[in-house]
Design goal:
The chain is α/β, with parallel strands linked by helices. The protein folds into 2 domains: 177 residues, Alpha/Beta hydrolase fold, catalytic domain (Rossmann fold); 64 residues, no CATH class. Helices cover 37% and strands 19% of the residues. Strands 1-3-2-4-5-8-9 form a 7-stranded mixed sheet, sandwiched between helices. The two termini are 29 Å apart. The relative contact order is 0.17.
């Protein structure tokens, strides 16, 4: 599968993987801030953004996409950063191909199994129910989403997935059917008895409920060199809530300082 991607800078390769319902565009600011000294790739994962659609949407399949992407870009070893769903992809890949990962950064996700989250089901159900052909404007679609998705920030995050497939006709970039059919697998834990011994940084949002104290032992068994850091004021969307704090932690871990005002 040939993934769409954005690329910034030169140097040691860094790959950033977005989360569920996200796309590469969500991480452009962070990518530019570390691209002064790194070659940063931000792909759209399958069934997201401008990348191809496929019926299968599991962590092994997404990790295989990453392997193929690295081969296409002739990347032998990378620093791997993943948020949420992208974090589980990054963990899966590091456990399967440890020799290809220089360092690992996991943002606000644990390798454990998660209970089904109502917000994901509500979002997908509402998106699938909207007849986009009858709603030619983003405002009308936002009004329809508001009936199920109360948080305006989450609505705006979802609306970024809209695009005009032809004049006056909006469509979702997401492959909603494949994602909906795969939710159980996306909530599942990482089933791998291996470990990744390389330097690993887990960053959590202090206001997020995606990581719990009981995850610590599980994480340290799989990632024995893991360091855990919490950004107290951040929710699950750490990169949106606390970009300066995130950049500071990345700077320390990567050994290179983030650029304060990245070029557009």
């Amino acid at each position: 599968m040939k993934l769409f991607y954005r690329h910034f800078g030169e140097g040691m390769p860094v790959i950033i993987l977005h989360g569920l319902f996200g796309q590469s565009d969500n991480w452009v600011t962070v990518a530019r801030r570390i691209a002064d000294q790194f070659s940063v790739y931000v792909p759209d994962q399958r069934n997201h953004g401008q990348s191809p659609h496929a019926a299968v949407h599991t962590y092994p399949a997404l990790a295989d996409d990453l392997l193929e992407f690295m081969e296409q870009q002739q990347i032998e070893k990378t620093i791997l950063i993943g948020h949420s769903m992208g974090g589980k992809v990054a963990m899966t890949f590091a456990l399967e191909h440890p020799e290809m990962v220089e360092k690992l950064v996991i943002i606000d996700i644990s390798p454990r199994k998660y209970p089904e989250r109502n917000i994901h089901t509500q979002v997908i159900t509402r998106m699938l129910s909207i007849n986009l052909e009858a709603l030619p404007s983003r405002t009308e679609i936002e009004n329809m989403l508001e009936l199920r998705v109360a948080d305006p920030r989450i609505r705006m995050f979802i609306l970024k997935n809209l695009y005009y497939k032809m004049p006056g006709q909006l469509a979702w970039r997401l492959n909603l059917e494949a994602i909906n059919n795969s939710l159980d697998q996306l909530f599942d834990g990482i089933r791998n008895n291996a470990s990744y011994a390389g330097p690993t940084l887990f960053i959590w949002g202090g206001k997020s409920d995606y990581v719990a104290d009981e995850d610590m032992g599980f994480i340290q068994r799989m990632f024995p060199d893991a360091v855990m850091k919490t950004i107290s004021g951040a929710s699950h969307w750490v990169h949106a809530d606390a970009p300066e704090e995130l950049c500071y932690l990345l700077s320390i871990f990567l050994g290179r300082e983030c650029v304060n005002n990245p070029a557009s």
